């Protein structure tokens, strides 16, 4: 497909991962980052994906997926925790901007998950609103522990899966869009050292789901 065409959910997924492959290979094309694209996107936007990721400074979405202006509708919070504002933003990206793909992007060495694991294990927690982040990640950590997981990557993947499930449970409009085949929701885990994004879970795409492994 070309960028000018309206992508299907699978088209959008493939387009995103192709950009990540270029980034990993050290051969980015920097598409849609010139003055012409800037002018083109002034009247309106039509992103091909909503990206809901962790706020970690090492997860700059347009860089790690080699995209440009108007390509990604990005929502980021520490530990990709989802409150009403996040859900509303994602629904806007899907319902108003017609993005066919929603991506939950987690990563290794996530400080929010590490802090939550420590809080669950030691009974300590942070102050202020950081405590709210920890509380929202806690169900994922408890689920991973209950499953007998010990490796950090397993905790990260569990949190990504639970975030995908939460979006679909709490947003009726998003769930209906997935059921109708208009939208897919996927969870990816990003590796800081090599820059690769790996599939953790998928809803609305005919793809292997690592949660079934």
Automatic annotation (TrEMBL):
Keyword Metal-binding: no
Enzyme class, broadest EC rank: lyase
Keyword Cell membrane among UniProt keywords: no
E.C. number: 4.2.1.1
InterPro entries the record matches: Carbonic_anhydrase, Carbonic_anhydrase_CS, Carbonic_anhydrase_sf
One Pfam short name: Pro_CA
Keywords: Lyase, Zinc
Gene3D superfamilies in the record: Carbonic anhydrase
Domain of life of the organism encoding this protein: Bacteria
Catalysed reactions, semicolon-separated: hydrogencarbonate + H(+) = CO2 + H2O
Function: Catalyzes the reversible hydration of carbon dioxide to form bicarbonate.
Family label: Belongs to the beta-class carbonic anhydrase family.
Protein name, UniProt field: carbonic anhydrase
Organism annotation: Streptomyces chrestomyceticus
């Amino acid at each position: 497909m070309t960028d000018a065409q309206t992508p299907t959910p699978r088209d959008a997924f493939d387009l995103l991962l192709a950009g990540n492959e270029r980034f990993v290979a050290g051969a980015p094309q920097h598409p849609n980052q010139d003055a012409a694209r800037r002018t083109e996107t002034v009247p309106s936007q039509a992103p091909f994906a909503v990206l809901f990721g962790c706020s970690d400074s090492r997860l700059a979405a347009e860089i790690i997926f080699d995209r440009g202006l108007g390509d990604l509708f990005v929502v980021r919070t520490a530990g990709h925790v989802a409150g009403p504002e996040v859900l509303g933003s994602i629904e806007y990206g899907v319902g108003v901007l017609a993005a066919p793909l929603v991506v939950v992007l987690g990563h290794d060495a996530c400080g929010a998950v590490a802090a939550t694991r420590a809080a669950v294990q030691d009974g300590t927690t942070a102050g202020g609103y950081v405590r709210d982040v920890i509380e929202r990640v806690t169900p994922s950590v408890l689920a991973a522990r209950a499953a007998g997981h010990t490796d950090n990557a397993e905790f990260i993947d569990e949190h990504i899966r639970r975030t995908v499930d939460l979006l679909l449970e709490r947003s009726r409009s998003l769930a209906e869009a997935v059921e109708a085949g208009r939208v897919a929701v996927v969870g990816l885990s990003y590796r800081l050292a090599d820059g690769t994004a790996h599939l953790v879970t998928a809803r609305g795409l005919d793809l292997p789901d690592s949660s079934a492994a």
